[in-house]
Amino acid sequence: MLQALPAPRAQQSMDAWNIAAMRTVAGGQRQAAYFAFAYLAQLRAMRRAPSLERALEGVLVTRSSPVASSPVLRLWRLLDEGQEEAVAVTDAGNYAAWLSSNDLQVAQRGGLNEAASASGGRIVGWQKELSASACDWCQTVGAERLYSSADAVPFHANDTCGVSPVFGEE
Asked: Where are the domains of the chain?
């Protein structure tokens, strides 16, 4: 999206970016939370319907969220420092990808917390759920370790692993 900005240094580009980033990331966050609901529904019967609003409270990306403007601010800073525009756009784009990846993980964790609450289950901890492409670091920190909260499970930039609850009876 940064490459499509008509004039990278113009305020209208910031406004266009904010709207596009908010729609894209917030939409992804809603899907991440919804998929977390569906995942837990496969594990446990739900006693009540989980709420997307509760799951995303305080984490949903809006036009005023730092993630909505910080990639363009980074682009402006890089350009002001004399970096070539193509390189600056790539660097700012990588930063945007890292930010949105973290926002999606936070939304997924919120969805898991909300769905676990809706199931009435007692969560005793959380574990890192390794993806098929899990790196050595993920395998080390995720190997049968129990974490106190979904937020305590460690992740890195572009991490493809997930997080799953461990219920009291497991």
From this structure: 2-121, 122-170
pLDDT of residue 80: 95
Distance of CA 35 to the CA centre of its chain: 13
φ/ψ of residue 164, rounded to 5 = -140, 150
Question: pLDDT digit string (tens) for 108-159?
Answer: 888 888 888 888 877 788 889 899 999 999 998 887 788 988 778 888 888 8
Phi-psi region of 158 (alpha: psi -120 to 50; beta: other; left: phi over 0): left
For residue 165, the one-letter residue type is P
Do the beta carbons of residue 150 and residue 126 sit within 8 Å? yes
Q: Is 34 helix (H, G, I), strand (E, B) or coil?
A: helix
In this prediction, residue 92 carries a pLDDT of 94
Q: Collapse the DSSP code of 126 into the 3-class scheme (helix H, G, I; strand E, B; otherwise coil) and give the result.
A: strand
Question: Which residues on adjacent β-strands are paired with residue 123?
Answer: 167
Distance CA 9, CA 156 (A): 30
Q: How far apart are CA 165 and CA 44, in angstroms?
A: 11
